[in-house]
UniProtKB/TrEMBL annotation, chain A:
Signal peptide location: none
Function text: Part of the AP-3 complex, an adaptor-related complex which is not clathrin-associated. The complex is associated with the Golgi region as well as more peripheral structures. It facilitates the budding of vesicles from the Golgi membrane and may be directly involved in trafficking to lysosomes. Involved in process of CD8+ T-cell and NK cell degranulation. In concert with the BLOC-1 complex, AP-3 is required to target cargos into vesicles assembled at cell bodies for delivery into neurites and nerve terminals.
Ranges where the record places region Disordered: 535-608, 637-683
Membrane topology qualifier: Peripheral membrane protein
Biased composition (Basic residues): 654-667
InterPro entries per UniProt: AP3_complex_dsu, AP3D_dom_metazoa, ARM-like, ARM-type_fold, Clathrin/coatomer_adapt-like_N, Mu_AP3
Protein name in UniProt: AP-3 complex subunit delta-1
Subcellular location: Cytoplasm; Golgi apparatus membrane
SUPFAM superfamilies: ARM repeat
CC annotations in GO: AP-3 adaptor complex; axon cytoplasm; endosome membrane; Golgi membrane; presynaptic endosome; terminal bouton
Gene assigned in the entry: AP3D1
Residue stretches of biased makeup (Basic and acidic residues): 552-588, 638-653
UniProtKB/TrEMBL annotation, chain B:
Coiled coil: none
Matching PANTHER family: ADAPTOR COMPLEXES SMALL SUBUNIT FAMILY (PTHR11753)
Presence of keyword Transport: yes
CDD domains found in the cross-reference section: AP1_sigma
TM helices/strands, residue ranges: none
Principal location class: membrane
Assembly: Adaptor protein complex 1 (AP-1) is a heterotetramer composed of two large adaptins (gamma-type subunit AP1G1 and beta-type subunit AP1B1), a medium adaptin (mu-type subunit AP1M1 or AP1M2) and a small adaptin (sigma-type subunit AP1S1 or AP1S2 or AP1S3). Binds to MUC1.
Official protein name in the record: AP complex subunit sigma
GO MF entry, a single one: clathrin adaptor activity
Source lineage: Eukaryota, Metazoa, Chordata, Craniata, Vertebrata
Keywords, in A-Z order: Coated pit, Cytoplasmic vesicle, Golgi apparatus, Membrane, Protein transport, Transport
Gene3D superfamilies: 3.30.450.60
């Protein structure tokens, strides 16, 4: 016996261990199979020994051989035997053996009869690593039988004190569920509990398991959505986040409300990704990245997300002075493509990019002009969205580019024609103004071309075209448009006269627009150093007298000038004087038909936005006062005054500097762009003109804050909004309410929800599936000082009565350290007027209508109206959506139509401060209400 | 995840882990096929490919290919991330890992994988925790006197 043991140990001195086996196999490359078969023979011998260590060594080697693809199932019994040993290493090796295989019959019998008690014994071992190995091993060969027998044991382990065991148990449960689905129901509560385990490892394991389960049958896991939502917003583990998002992907189709909830956290994630993109671009991959983004833009469903992508695309492309763009033709095409987006709020951004690129990259102008001409030609496609900052803004850019660089146009005549179409008159005022001005530039170009040829008739025809079309603009309600149109009209008339005398005029007309405009950096002005000894605040001459005119102020031609009331320029004005002037100004405004008389606050909002002046603005009935408590009005004026002075001071500065700058000569072009990046050469020679900066500009860069911010003075504690109710022409039962929300606080406002208490007659249109009490999310957030417009559609049944709807706006005010939920009550007033739509009517049709005798009549008398008759008419047209059919002296006929097709006819007469209105309409109550509203309008002035 | 294979540029299998029950012949057939497909691909080609009804995600580190097969609903990028995390773990444990480390200490490589992935799902995403578990298991082994040769009774 002793001898046998000694002999055994000596033999084992020559045993191969695993390392030797590996080395041996590597040394026998030629006859590997033969070498291994001898090894297997050796292993068989070893397994017959009593010594467990020898057996374990043999099993170790078997695991390696199994990996190489040799069949080791014959040793299954020995393996299980070694596994049952108490030594950790041996178990580790065994667990590697992936016994789960077709030999299931054999293996399960063995395992069930022999190892089951062993494995279960391991499962409750005090050593966590023993248990761990058992679990790991188990994960590879879970069979339905094993799963059934071990489910409850593993479930107990899910509550083990050691997180190491807990997480393994949780993951194994997944395998158990797959093999033995009945175990899911009892185990689920505990699994759910693990989602909130204090150990992140266990938590992520639980998330993994539930996500995998949910993928197979999502609807059973809907109830967990809030829990996952919490995890998603709190977890920082990206692995877990990805799984959760996948899970939500499976859940959202089942529960549409979830989608709404997810928008914010998901957009945050997407933003992170987009921000990464921003840093990732290079010359090489820019086009590829933008192409991908464009695909997403096409697919995106929400306008907010689409707008976000749009700004990102532009950000990415324009970063570091267009550093990464090698082909500007491509960029222009991208911008043009972006104009096809519906409902975007970034028309202005696209427009400014178009202008910037066309102005600064000379080589691109030919291409840009061609593209812009196409845009103008298809302008009607873009005018659908008249919203502020809507896509129609790009027409502004298109018109200017085509005008300014008209020499590159292939067919300037066609573009000129496109710019003078009657449809243009529906565009916002500031865009019309640019159209008119640039039509003149195009006219000059066309004339030059036509006079070059012998066909002098063509030139005259062109003039005639302008003379025919411009009067449309002369009638515009927008002063800027009107002014430019009448100037140019007179000019063209004069030119036509000269043409008829066969004088060549092209040269001189062109001279009107000669010279090139160079871009000036926005900060250039401030960077001009103040020379020594110059006191900018000192008076140069004696202070001017009070009556100083305002004509010295430079007029911005291509940008909208910030509207403000012109005020005398000197600084010392006493309170009385101010009051007197205010009074005078009010008087003047009252007599001006173009001045929209509204309350000061609502007017403020509209001042900043061009093109909406023609929308009647009604102040909302706010139950909360909008004034700052404890701050008298005069203080606010004082603040405004201070700011105004500051602004004027800087303007004075500007003038002085101008002279200086001229000496330095204009058109100084800085070096083109940044140094080009080694390997990539641009598609064509690109000459990026940098914006002009004064020489020896100051390096200081602290001018980002705008001290002139007008909202600072109005530090009102609420957000405030103005709304406009408009009928929908297409659908007689729909009314669109556009609400402009302006955040007047210093805090970020988010999660705004707009809700209205429906009446029987008028209902807010909510998305399908929501209850009539649900609010509608306002699709944007408001940073401090920002305003934005949202539209809400109401369906109305009867339009013959005015109506007031009560509503609430709830929102979250986010301050630095906390956020509070706030609420604002308001009333929406649906007047009968808002159901009327300005519709032109010819006098003969009008007469027929009256003759038909189907209309009921009613009348109204207004006493003490002192305004001139044409002001009165303008007011009715403006506030009540009527159009004048005919006017004879102090008598006029007017017409309007309701969205449901009711005809409303007025006959307005005036004599001695008394206005009488005889009205006819096929709906008496509608008529009565409209007349009441007209009366109300005039009682206010 | 269905399975994970590590193989050399010559097509020699270095490590295989199966998370689905398959017969040995099936496994052999699959690994041969996958290895051939992956090795035939050029370096600039994509790391993801569709294979049968699965997706193969692979990445080459030095002379060794790491290759995973996932279901078609699984995310390829996170699989790639899992592969990378595993390589990082090996690297941390062995100290700039090379193919030979894995050949000679294949049981360690397995053990690390088991601590990181269980039943085809990542069980522990923290590198530190995985390494801690492995270290402690190592200590346990040493305490129990590891080498069979030294055990002369």
């Amino acid at each position: 016996m002793a001898l046998k043991i000694v002999k055994g140990s000596i033999d084992r001195m020559f045993d191969k261990n695993l390392q030797d086996l590996v080395r041996g196999i590597r040394n026998h490359k030629e006859d590997e199979a033969k070498y291994i078969s001898t090894c297997i023979d050796e292993i068989k011998q070893e397994l017959k020994q009593d010594n467990i260590a020898v057996k374990a060594n043999a099993v170790c080697k078997l695991t390696y051989l199994q990996m190489l693809g040799y069949d080791v199932s014959w040793a299954a019994f020995n393996i299980v035997e070694v596994m049952s040993s108490s030594k950790f290493t041996y178990k580790v090796s065994c667990s590697q053996l992936q016994l789960q295989s077709v030999d299931a019959v054999l293996i399960t019998t063995i395992i069930n009869s022999v190892s089951l008690p062993l494995v279960t014994q391991d499962l409750s071992s005090p050593n966590q690593y023993d248990t761990g190995v058992a679990l790991t091993g188990l994960s590879c060969f879970v069979t339905p039988d094993l799963a059934r027998d071990l489910a409850s044991d593993i479930m107990t382990l899910m509550s083990h004190t050691k997180p190491y065991i807990r997480k393994k148990a949780v993951l194994i449960m997944y395998k158990v569920f797959l093999k033995y689905p009945e175990s899911l129901r009892p185990a689920f509560p505990r699994l759910k509990e693990k989602l909130e385990d204090p150990d992140p490892g266990v938590q992520s394991a639980a998330v993994n398991v539930i996500c995998e389960l949910a993928r197979r049958n999502p609807k059973n896991y809907l109830s967990l959505a809030p829990l996952f939502f919490k995890l998603m917003t709190s977890s920082t583990n990206n692995w877990v986040l990805i799984k959760i998002i996948k899970l939500f992907g499976a859940l959202t189709p089942l529960e549409p409300r979830l989608g709404k909830k997810l928008i914010e956290p998901l957009t945050n994630l997407i933003h992170r990704a987009l921000d990464l993109l921003y840093g990732m671009v290079s010359k090489k991959n820019l086009m590829e990245i933008v192409k991908k983004l464009m695909l997403h833009v096409d697919k995106a469903e929400g306008t907010t997300y689409r707008d976000e992508l749009l700004t990102k695309i532009i950000d990415i492309c324009s970063q570091s002075n267009y550093q990464y763009i090698t082909n500007f033709e491509w960029y222009i095409s991208i911008l043009v493509e972006l104009t096809r987006l519906e409902g975007t709020r970034h028309g202005h951004l696209i427009a400014s990019q178009m202008l910037d690129v066309a102005i600064r990259v000379k080589a691109i102008r030919v291409f840009a002009v061609a593209q812009m001409a196409t845009l103008l030609d298809n302008g009607h496609l873009l005018t659908g969205n008249m919203q502020r900052n809507g896509i129609c803004e790009v027409l502004y850019a298109a018109a200017w580019i085509c005008g300014e660089f008209s020499e590159h146009l292939e067919d300037p005549m066609q573009t000129l024609e496109a710019m003078l179409r009657p449809k243009v008159a529906t565009l916002p005022g500031h865009i019309q103004a640019v159209y008119v001005q640039n039509a003149a530039k195009l006219f000059a170009t066309v004339l030059r071309k036509q006079e070059g040829t012998t066909d002098s008739l063509a030139a005259q025809e062109t003039s005639q075209l302008l003379i025919d079309r411009l009067p449309l603009f002369v009638q515009s309600a927008n002063l800027e448009v009107q002014e430019r149109a009448s100037c140019i009209l007179q000019l063209v008339k004069y030119i036509q006269k000269l043409q008829q005398k066969e004088v060549e005029v092209a040269e001189e007309v062109t001279a009107l627009f000669a010279g090139e405009l160079n871009p000036v950096a926005p900060k250039a002005q401030k960077k001009v150093p103040v020379p020594d000894g110059l006191d900018l605040d000192a008076w140069i001459n004696e202070p001017p007298s009070e009556s100083e005119s305002e004509d010295e102020k430079p007029k911005a031609i291509f940008t909208k000038e910030e509207p403000k009331h012109t005020r005398p320029r000197h600084t010392e004005v006493d309170e009385k004087e101010l009051a007197r002037r205010r009074e005078a100004r009010k008087q003047e405004q009252a007599n001006n038909p173009f001045y929209i008389k509204t309350s000061p606050s609502s007017q403020k909002v509209y001042q900043d936005q061009p093109g909406v002046e023609h929308i009647p603005v009604v102040q909302i009935d706010l139950s909360v006062p909008l004034k700052v408590p404890g701050m008298p009005m005069s203080d606010q004026y004082l603040k405004l005054e201070e700011e105004r002075r500051q602004k004027e001071r800087s303007e004075r500065k500007k003038k002085e500097k101008k002279k200086k700058r001229e000496k330095h000569g204009r058109g100084r072009r800085a070096d083109s762009g940044p140094e080009s990046e080694e390997d990539i050469t641009p598609a064509h020679h690109v000459d990026i003109v940098t914006e002009e900066m004064p020489e020896n500009a100051l390096p200081s860069d602290d001018d980002d804050k705008d001290p002139n911010d007008p909202h600072k003075a109005l530090d009102i504690d609420l957000d405030k909004y103005v709304y406009d109710v408009q009928g929908n022409l297409q659908d007689g039962s729909q009314v669109v309410v556009s609400v402009i929300f302006e955040n007047k606080t210093d805090h970020f406002l988010k999660s705004m929800e707009f809700n209205v208490l429906d009446s029987l007659n008028s209902k807010l249109q909510r998305p399908e599936g929501s209850s009539p009490h649900d609010g509608l999310a306002v699709p944007f957030q408001l940073p401090p000082g920002v305003s934005n417009e949202a539209r809400f559609v109401f369906s109305v049944q009867s339009i013959v009565m005015p109506q007031k709807l009560k509503g609430t706006l709830t929102f979250i005010v986010k301050t630095e350290d906390a956020s509070t939920h706030e609420k604002l009550d308001f009333k929406l007033h649906f007047t009968c007027t808002s159901y009327l739509i300005t519709t032109p009517c010819y006098s003969d049709a009008y007469a027929k209508l009256l003759e038909s005798g189907e209309l009921k009549s009613s009348s109204l008398k207004l006493e003490g109206v002192i305004m001139p008759f044409h002001h009165l008419l303008a007011r009715i047209c403006f506030h009540h959506h009527f159009s004048v059919v005919e006017r004879i002296d102090s008598c006029a006929s007017m017409y309007s139509r309701s969205i449901q097709g009711h005809h409303v006819c007025l006959l307005v007469k005036t004599s001695n401060q008394t206005v009488s209105i005889d009205a006819k309409c096929d709906e008496p109550s509608l008529l009565g209400n409209v007349l009441d509203e007209i009366k109300h309008t005039f009682s206010q002035c | 995840m269905q399975f994970m294979l590590l193989f050399s540029r010559q097509g020699k299998l270095r490590l295989q882990k199966w998370y689905v029950p398959l017969s040995d012949t099936q496994k052999k057939k699959i690994s041969r096929e996958v290895i051939q497909t992956v090795l035939a691909r050029k370096p600039k080609m994509c790391s993801f490919l569709e294979w049968r009804d699965l997706k193969i995600v692979y990445k080459r580190y030095a002379s060794l290919y790491f290759c995973c097969a996932v279901e078609d609903q699984d995310n390829e990028l996170i699989t790639l991330e899992i592969i990378h995390r595993y390589v990082e773990l090996l690297d941390k444990y062995f100290g700039s890992v090379c193919e030979l480390d894995i050949i000679f200490n294949f049981e360690k490589a397995y053990y690390i994988l088991d601590e990181f992935i269980l039943g085809g799902e990542p069980q522990e995403t923290s590198k530190k925790n995985v390494l801690k578990a492995i270290e402690q298991a190592d200590m346990l082994q040493e305490a129990l006197s590891y080498h069979p040769r030294s055990q002369i009774p």
